[in-house]
Amino acid sequence: MSEQTVIHQPDYDVIVIGGGMVGAATALGMAKAGLRVMLVEKLAPSLVWSESMPYQVRVSALTRASENILRNLGAWEGIQARRAHPFVAMHIWESLGGEETHLSAQEVGAPNLGFVVENSVIQAALWEKCQQHKQIEIILEDNLVSLTLTEKNTENSENCQNSQSCISVLPEVHLEKRGILSARLIVGADGAFSQVRHMANIGLDSHDYGQCAVVGCVKTEKSHEDTCWQRYTPDGPFAFLAMDQNVSSIAWYLPLEKMQWALNLDDADFARAVTEASGERLGQVIEVAERGAFTLVRRHAQQYVKPGLALVGDAAHTIHPQAGQGVNLGLLDASALIEVVTQAHEKSKPIGHYAVLRKYERWRKGDNVVVQRSMEFFDGLFRQQPGVQTQLRQAAMPILNRLKPMKHWLIEEALYGREPIPKYAKVNH
Ligand SMILES: Cc1cc2nc3c(=O)[nH]c(=O)nc-3n(C[C@H](O)[C@H](O)[C@H](O)COP(=O)(O)OP(=O)(O)OC[C@H]3O[C@@H](n4cnc5c(N)ncnc54)[C@H](O)[C@@H]3O)c2cc1C
Fold first, then answer.
1. Residue 125: closest CA among 38, 212, 24
2. Hey, whose CA ends up nearest to atom 50 of ligand 1?
3. Is residue 275 situated within a structural domain?
């Protein structure tokens, strides 16, 4: 069979496996570029909403870049119509003493430093838009049985004169109920335990932090003042993320062996333990809601792409969540992938071609590594027992407080992401 032969037309341009926040954003962006998309999600998300619904266990602190992406995708209105809470400052301090650091939106002339939003709210707003888009077909509650990829090496893009000359076999997914479906590009957005990554034989570098994060919402005696509060202790950080009036979501990092202890505490003891972990910064914890715990593992896929396949979000990487960057990085992945695929599509180039997808990988992998490693650096620095590291970090805080340009640069990097920023992450794409 010659290289020019096309075996059959694909059923879709793009098949996205996994309709979490990152997968739904990817599907929407691809459809907005005029591509025919199939979105496969094994668990139907709940789109039912009422203001009286209790706060969900999982929340995300969204950066300005993520807000822009969600606005440009048309999902921000749906988020604001449900609930999203802006925070205007971050306050960081250490249980062992020393100078405290305060980062505020005012310092950089911004209205806020981001929004704290429940994950289910972000997903529901994106799903609403996916359901309305005529280019998107949704398949719910089906299981991925296998994946077949183009193995032919067509790395040299010079050989690709038109969209057909580079394709010898189309990638296919085999779903338990729907059967075999083909696409020009398959996107694995199926989370940290990605089946797509596994089926594509993509290796994983991982590191167990030996830590867990206990999360959930609590009501405190004092107001959070629209601020996210982070206290470093020898066990790990403790954070309050501002939600509603006197309601904050907590992220309490503990050694793994304390996970069951924290989950098994009754509400009164849990409230007391959280009050203590927070150094009583917001006074007593007076009410606690449902809680959950996650073990923390750094994962990084050895490749983000193969011919006909790309991984995005947690399927490609998971990081220590202390700076709340996971879904923010995932949304940047989605935006970068949408951009390189859209460019190829507009030039009638094959969107699943390795050279096209490698642009995405080169763009995002380095950035994700930098963020992963800086989170580890901070975690290591702050988890040390009293000693040289304590003196180092106690010296670092005042320097950061006084070096205004460095402080402003840090705030802006955290808000907008690192250059080059995908178009979707900019205002009014
Ligand atoms: C304690 C904690 C706190 C965090 N806080 C923050 C924060 O403040 N800010 C932030 O940016 N990030 C945060 N993160 C990280 C963030 O939650 C993740 O990065 C984010 O959820 C990843 O989104 P995703 O869409 O890539 O994956 P997921 O949210 O895991 O979604 C994957 C989707 O794929 C579906 N799926 C799985 N397998 C299949 C299959 N075979 N077929 C079809 N569908 C499938 C799943 O049902 C799911 O809907 C935190 C993480 C933790 C653990």
1. 24
2. 321
3. no
